[in-house]
Amino acid sequence: MPTISRDAELQTVITTFDVTPGTCQDLLDELDDAYTNFISKQPGFIGAGLHVNDAQTRIANYSQWQRREDFQAMLRSEEMRARNRRISALCKSFEPVMYDVFGSFD
């Protein structure tokens, strides 16, 4: 389960996808399959969430990893490289960015 805390020693990755309403569900299905069958089984994976806006033009993905290297190893795998080619075909653009938590508020 993701943890949002400045003190947590982990790697947070936020990926945004620019999609059309016509491809949004297809991409959500592809991402769901990737997390269910591959990403969640990779070393260092902690948790993730998928979010879609009401216009179905943006998907945001929040994931956490034990270490930066765990996320990078997953991205470099043959399996994920093939999946990313399919993902790329379903969206205008996507960009995974590694973040450090600055603060969290309850």
Structure description:
The protein has 106 residues and is of the alpha+beta class. It has a single domain (11-99), classed as Alpha-Beta Plaits (2-Layer Sandwich), CATH 3.30.70. Helices cover 36% and strands 29% of the residues. It contains three helices and four strands, in the order βαββααβ. The protein has helices at residues 21-37, 68-76, 78-89; strands at 11-18, 45-52, 58-65, 93-99. The chain has a four-stranded antiparallel β-sheet. Helix 1 (21-37) packs antiparallel against helix 3. The model has no long low-confidence stretch (mean pLDDT 94).
Short synopsis of the structure:
The chain has 3 helices and 4 strands; from the N terminus they run βαββααβ. The protein is α+β, with helices and mostly antiparallel strands.
Helices, strands, pairings?
Blueprint: E1 11-18, H1 21-37, E2 45-52, E3 58-65, H2 68-76, H3 78-89, E4 93-99
Keywords: Monooxygenase, Oxidoreductase
Domain ABM: 11-102
Protein name: Antibiotic biosynthesis monooxygenase
Strand element count: 4
Roughly how much helix do the residues carry, as a percent range? 25-40%
Q: Which whole number gives the mean pLDDT?
A: 94
What is the number of independent domains? 1
Structural class: alpha+beta
CATH topology: Alpha-Beta Plaits
CATH architecture: 2-Layer Sandwich
Order of helices and strands: EHEEHHE
Q: Kindly estimate the percentage of residues that lie in beta strands according to DSSP.
A: 25-35%
Tell me, what's the shape? globular
CATH class category = Alpha Beta
Q: Please mark out the parts with pLDDT under 50 across 5 or more consecutive residues, or reply none.
A: none
How many angstroms separate the termini?
Answer: 17 Å
What summary fits the major beta sheet?
A: 4 strands, antiparallel
Q: Helical segment tally?
A: 3
Please give the order of strands in the largest beta sheet: 2-3-1-4
Radius of gyration: 14 Å
